[in-house]
Amino acid sequence: MVENKSNADRALQLALAAAEVAAENRGQDVLVLDMRKQTALFDYFVIATGTSRRQIHAMSEEVDHKLEDELNDARMSVEGYRESRWIVLDYGSVVIHLFDELTRQFYNLENLWADAKKVDLTDVVPSEAQHLGEVGVGHTASVATDGQPDPSRPSS
Questions:
Q1: pTM of the complete model
Q2: In angstroms, rounded to a whole number, what is the distance separating the alpha carbons of residues 100 and 51?
Q3: Which terminus of the chain has a smaller tally of CB atoms within 10 A, N or C?
Q4: Backbone angles phi, psi at 9, to 5 degrees
């Protein structure tokens, strides 16, 4: 599949803007994965972790504001907003995943898509907010009996 350069540039612009906004809203372990060699469905994943439901909501709303109002793109769908453990914002070429820590550890998208190239965020996201290794190194997620992360149980 030959991709139009301007579409690829636009997708990267949206992904970097979403990562920057997540970091500005105190998102942690911010990561952008170049998915173009893994799937034809979208170009980039943006992944970030929030520390509370309110913060994850704020990241979601601010990403929407940036991408829709300032960059004139249209969100195709949103999932998980009410539960706020994993909010997915689908902008077509870019899919943004905003997690709480336990849910991110449980689903471990960066390991699932380990072959995807990590986009350099040096000029966009402060180093303390960037994903530099495993999520929650030294922590293990508590998992409920239904296989889902149990937010009522602390991680060890």
A1: 0.79
A2: 6
A3: N
A4: -65, -40
